[in-house]
Amino acid sequence: MANMNMVQALNSAMDIMLERDPRVVILGEDVGYFGGVFRVTDGLQRKHGEHRVLDTPIAEGGIVAAAIGMGVNGLKPVAEIQFADYIYPAFDQVVSELARLRYRTAGEFSAAVTIRTPCGGGIRGGQTHSQSPEGIFTHVCGIKVVMPSNPYDAKGLLISSIEDEDPVVFFEPKRIYNGPFDGDPHKPAIPWSSHPSGAVPEGYYTVPIGRAEIVRPGKDVTVLAYGTMVHVAEAAVRLAGVDAEIVDVRTLAPLDVDTLCTSVCKTGRCVVVHEATRFSGYGAELVATVQEECFWHLEAPIQRVTGWDTPYPHAFEWEYFPGPARIAAALKSVMEAA
Amino acid sequence: MTPRSRLHIPFPPARPGDKPDFSYVQISPAGAVARPETMAPARDIEDLAGQMVRVLGDDAKAVGSWNPHLEPQDLQVGLRYMLLTRLFDDRMQRMQRQGRMSFYMKSTGEEAVSIAAGMALLPTDMLFPSYRTQGLHVVRGHSLVDLMCQCLSNTRDMCKGRQMPVMYHWASGNIFSISGNLATQFPQAVGWAMAAAIKGEDRIAASWIGEGSSAEADFHHALTFAAVYRAPVILNVVNNQWAISTFQGFAGGELQTFAKRGSGYGMPGIRVDGNDFLAVYAVTQWAAERARQSGGPTLIEHVTYRAAAHSTSDDPSRYRPKEEWQAWPLGDPIVRLKQHLIALGEWSEERHSALEKELSAHVTACWKEAASYGTLTEGPTLDPATMFEDVYKEMPPHLARQRDELLALSRLQPARGSDEEQRQTQAVAKEG
């Protein structure tokens, strides 16, 4: 066991996979010599060579297309899109090509590409370095969508993603790269070494894709969250003083319906939290699923706490961010209902 | 008067009712362009992009340093495959018109682009085709029955009814799948070629797009990545003058040839007479040799003409003169190779008619067999529940649930049963 922050854990996952599987290659902007703008690929090119860890031109569509071609030719590419906000030039290659290649060729061709991309706000990134576009990708059939909330899961899920035969879009909540963040930007930063999930095995292990995790058991209300918002939800639960069960969704697609709905059927109340915008957001899918599976157990309307339906504003990011106060208010409101 | 900016709106030289005008097509005399060394630096051979590599002259003789000096038997094979492609296309078009298929796209007039390239490359090289390069399947020996079954979306459709007609693939023949989204395969081919080099193989990739889709960002991505990593790939732009209704000027062909884009990326660009079987063969062979020796990518512009409609859903008489194909200055690739073989004393009109008859009979036999496995309209088709397969490698629970929902629904409805099959058998008999 070692103490790792999320950057180190992700780095370790790729290091191990480059070592174990000669088919694994890393490609992306600044990922090679420099080691990535967030240092996630630091040292990997030096160790594994420039044919395994490739700097690329600034062309996200080209990065994903090249990764698809590599995947068709038997490699297992891990492509980094430097910010999730930059993924849109690659949208066609992800949606029309990567996601559907196996389907359109009835299984004759496929490309096991992992796309890693940092997402989320709280770093003064403004509207082009703060987005959480996961809901756009969960709407696409043929790809898996993952977002870890801590170093242990980040490493185990990234290894699982690289080993997966299907394409995976792997979102990395960059606000918690260096430490768990409870939603209060005025508090001093806490390092991952102070958090139990900062303890990460140095060697190979996996966290399965498709399984949610109960990170805080409770009986009054279920909070469904993922990424940074898991930690914000924990703070909100303390603030609200309710005995909430917090479920870290972890894999957004395919969704672990059983874990989520077993929890809601038990508590009878549910609050869905994400940083992304609300309208047609991923939370709508969660709410719909819970409604379908748990309707007769529900004691109160399900609430959503999300980013506002505006672009992420640079100067007002803490007014935008769905912080503990808003989540706590939602928790109180579902507890008071009926 | 105050000066103001105005847009240039490209307009083709001829629209319906006008006399065809191809004076904009710059044509070099056969044999006039010299073949450079395979590893010549790109900057030393930039003129190849402005001229036109041609081997077959108007007198049907092969001339110049690009002449690949193929054996007559090879030329006959090339002629056979071009003719087979054309007859296949004609048959499929007719079947679409009879309502047996939803859609088709012919490659008439462009057969040399696929057949000559397919012959110049090794069978192990990976091809990333466009929707109008069906000749690549034909020249690699993909069974016509398989291709037809795909077009019919029947029980033997390689795509299991998931793709429109002509969106073939053939993994064992090293031919990649066709996407309906244009140009996406161009940068994918580069990625494939990069992987070949990373793995230390000497296989190369080749890809084809139309001049129209060279306007897509994927074209730029492909050329950038290919040039940056000097990937072993051949990038072909098939300039057939028309992208549905917009002429090649709308893709930027008015001021510059498409081949010249290569030099902007630091790779050779070669403009070739796409209806000259020997010239297409020769430039492909040159680019393949170069790629195999770590010389990097080559951009080839094939100047040709889309003789047929864009697809069976298109009516070109609404946007271009009907007589354009007859007026096309580079002729018909099949006629030109045939005349060349006749000039060599290795072919005759009689042999040509006999070949045509033989291949027609083959296409008919293939069609009968393919239709016996079902058609989209008359069935049988695959079990619709197969639509839930291959979305992921393993079917996730939510898809299994949706499949069961569909199956429960179909149990409530009368099955597409035996009378369907009967109708279909009758239809096949009528067809014969």
Explain how this protein is built.
The complex is a heterodimer of chains A (338) and B (432). Chain A is α/β, with parallel strands linked by helices. Chain A folds into two domains: 2-200, Thiamin diphosphate (ThDP)-binding fold, Pyr/PP domains (Rossmann fold), CATH 3.40.50.970; 213-336, 3-Layer(aba) Sandwich (Rossmann fold), CATH 3.40.50.920. Helix content of chain A is 35%, strand content 18%. In chain A, the strands form three sheets. Chain A has a seven-stranded mixed β-sheet, sandwiched between helices. Chain A has a five-stranded mixed β-sheet with strand order 9-11-10-13-14, with helices on both faces. Chain A has a two-stranded antiparallel sheet with strand order 1-8. In chain A, helix 1 packs parallel to helix 7 (151-163) and helix 3 runs parallel beside helix 4. The mean pLDDT of chain A is 97. In chain B, 39% of the residues lie in helices and 7% in strands. Chain B contains 13 helices and seven strands. The relative contact order of chain B is 0.16. Chains A and B meet through helix 3, helix 4 and helix 5 of A and helix 5 and helix 6 of B.
Q: What is the count of helical runs of chain B?
A: 13
- Strand content of chain A is 15-25%
The CATH fourth-level homologous superfamily of the largest domain in chain B = Thiamin diphosphate (ThDP)-binding fold, Pyr/PP domains
CATH superfamily of the largest domain in chain A: Thiamin diphosphate (ThDP)-binding fold, Pyr/PP domains
Name a few traits of the molecule:
heterodimer, A: 338 residues, alpha/beta, Rossmann fold, 2 domains, seven-stranded mixed β-sheet, five-stranded mixed β-sheet, 12 helices, B: 432 residues, 13 helices, disordered C terminus
